[in-house]
């Protein structure tokens, strides 16, 4: 009996050896390859940890305006049209093709077939219509009003109707021609979400994008996983993306040097040479499609007086800011529009640093030296256009003190900061704007048009509005440029803000990172990103 049991046991062991041998040879090619290529591929890193200064405010891009939100939502959702990597040139996304009528008031988009939302429902023209109807119905969707002029049946709403003209075809009927219309469709806020998820998008986003939400630990990290059913063949390369909050720039760099993160934004300009001399790291430069600026609430004292606003413009030493905090990677701003955008007016004189002129203007506004006290607000985390907000605020505080303005620096967390900015609760503060589509309209109308949700200075000038609206409807790019140059002359005279700098921001990452291209719009997709061995 014992011999029989031993024989059975020996037979079992022998069979298991054959099974194991068979498993180990699985994956060998027909030419007898050992399968080492597969093994090395499996050993390649497939999770990227991105270090950033602050958390997203929500995961519904249609309700937000901040880059920290768009960093994440760009991975979860797709837009109808998207930008080619590193540019603001258009290429197909959920729409494979598009055409417009001769008069520029109708746009017909042919949609991609065989695409599903993360919840399994099919992407169709009806879903596109549902998204636009949602955005049209409420001023909560700030970007919609900013880019398309108004809401609902309002005559200011450039979109008169959105209609599904087939299962995979949608037609936009406009009340007037809109030159930036297609560029607007590619912007992050106009990502297409599953209509079944509209009520829960802030916490539970459902798009068609290359990644899906795994988890969100507020003010700590957001983890995304690869969408295995993504419509773009072979993409994404990464299995997971982790957005890790590390508020301090220097701490973030230390985490990169220690291998705790793989990519970071908000590099201190003074650290650039250190990174470039580290064989394990490399830098990336984000094109300067931005402006750092200081809005002044034009509706409240003392900034309701343009003479005071002009005085503040003369008081601030922008060259000192660039030398002290940007290490030469910025240029002083005299317009709210960056020089890289068509329509920039280089003939605008701007406001030279002139403390004596500032003092004279304040006296003209009946503010003797030392009589004016203001609160100057700044964010508590670095931004891509402002690497050291607290120190920059202190420098501006000193400049204002030199002309007799006492500025008390106040700080808020990023989410509350944005909310207060939109509500006009901070008379003057530091902020910035990164262009969404490379068009002048996205700076001048978005930031300074009457009623725009991003007009933090609450500036209103009927003549400026008229010129900007004319430029929106003009399809001749040379004529549009002339109109934007005219608008900048008018805006400069009113001085609603203090344009500070245009900054070519620095990013840093592991030297094994491949396929990463910073977007001039400030938020890029990680679809092409992978690691080399």
From TrEMBL:
CDD domains: PBP2_DppA_like
GO molecular function: peptide transmembrane transporter activity
Signal peptide location: 1-21
Topology with respect to the bilayer: Lipid-anchor
Keyword Glycosyltransferase assigned: no
Localization (cell): Cell membrane
Domain Solute-binding protein family: 89-454
Gene Ontology terms: biological process: peptide transport
Single GO cellular component term: periplasmic space
PROSITE patterns listed in its UniProt record: PROKAR_LIPOPROTEIN (PS51257), SBP_BACTERIAL_5 (PS01040)
Domain of life: Bacteria
Protein's UniProt keywords contain Transport: yes
Region (Disordered): 27-63
Gene3D superfamilies: Dipeptide-binding Protein, Domain 1, Dipeptide-binding Protein, Domain 3, Periplasmic binding protein-like II
Keyword annotations from UniProtKB, A to Z: Signal, Transport
Cross-referenced InterPro entries: Peptide/Ni-bd (IPR030678), SBP_5 (IPR039424), SBP_5_CS (IPR023765), SBP_5_dom (IPR000914)
Recorded family membership: Belongs to the bacterial solute-binding protein 5 family.
The protein's name in its UniProt record: ABC transporter substrate-binding protein
Organism this protein belongs to: Salibacterium salarium
Lineage, highest ranks first: Bacteria, Bacillati, Bacillota, Bacilli, Bacillales
